[in-house]
Amino acid sequence: MSAFVGTQTIASADEFRSLINQLQTDTSCFFLRWPHQVSGFCRELPSDFPSPEGQMFDSQKELRWKRQGKGYSVLLLSADGARPNFKPVGPAWAAQDREAHLYPKTETRFPQGVDDQGINVGQRYFLNPQTATVHFVALVVR
After folding, report:
1. What is the pTM of this model?
2. Distance between CA 25 and CA 6 in Å, rounded?
3. What is the extent of the structural domain holding 8?
4. How is 83-137 classified by DSSP, letter by letter?
5. How many domains does the chain have?
6. Comparing 14-23, 56-65, 94-103, which segment has the lowest mean pLDDT?
7. pLDDT, tens only, 37-69
């Protein structure tokens, strides 16, 4: 795997929507967060997008974002190499795929169940190849 971790700062919500459209695939899933709610796992963007925080993921990459002022700070965790306009974080990364299990909707640690919509997820660890320290854990669609 040609693992890549990179960041980008985006100036506006319109530019951010354009980036999402460029990176979105047929298998992309979203998990969006607002101060008062989460979207749960969804296959399509809700009408109140963009959210202050969230992530989009598929089998090859995860894109995370957080609003900063009128723009967005974006982190890309990719198993298929670098993308244009993303500044690399660190010199090299190794990636390892792992299994993952979602909590059932009846789990009492959440005030309301989180809907998984039948999406099968896994995890991808991004680690420093020299120290084997895991720095990021990304969700992937299986």
Report:
1. 0.88
2. 19
3. 4-141
4. -TTPEE-SS--EEEEEE--PPPTT-TTSSSPPP-TT--EEEEEEE-TTT--EEEE
5. 1
6. 94-103
7. 888 888 888 777 788 999 999 999 999 999 999
